[in-house]
Amino acid sequence: MVLSERAQFDLAVRLRSDEGVAIGEVFAFVSGLYFKGKLAYALEFARPPEPGAELTGSGALVITPTAGLRPVETRVDARALRTFAGVDIAANDPRYRRPLLASARALSDEIGPDCDVVLLGSIASAKYVDVLKEVFGARLRFPIEFVGRGDMSRGGLLLRCVRAREELTYVPVEGTVRHGPRPPRLEPIKGISKWR
Questions:
Q1: Cβ(46)–Cβ(69) below 8 Å
Q2: Which of 84, 97, 120, 164 could bond to 65 as cystine, CB 3.0-4.6 Å?
Q3: How many other CB atoms sit within 10 Å of the CB of residue 79?
Q4: Which positions ≥6 away from 124 have C-beta within 8 Å?
Q5: So what's the pLDDT on residue 81?
Q6: How many angstroms separate the CA atoms of 36 and 25, rounded?
Q7: 73 or 190, which is more confident?
């Protein structure tokens, strides 16, 4: 829908322009609640060691299918999205793995050995964890509250944390049980209709 030449809504029109759109905005549109939660949370709580540095930007990064880690502010256009769409995010696909490893290594050099990296993506999936753990080792962390939650539940949890201005608890991915029983459902946010 967003890549249709006939689409006239704002995001689609801007994607076809020379200026493009911030990748975070595009991913939030395509992925819905889960990515919106990740984006809002990362922008609220990320603490890059060098604000404005080339690779870290605001400190919120996205994993792309063909360009590795990129700051959420990175501009993309329709052509870049079509390139992304042509590659599966799979740990054994070199079109995904090589750029992710290269950008993770560059990020590791930029942030130094004392800075942790928090993964807000699926910690149950090898497609992110195996590649990033190879570079960051024990510095790769995730919110322990993610264990047992599906995508939508994680997105809702992250949005609630932003609203409450409460950060989650990060633990190393390495050596941690990443699968577990489902936690209780999140309580609805008062004053917000579920039909909106």
A1: no
A2: 84
A3: 12
A4: 178, 179
A5: 85
A6: 9
A7: 73
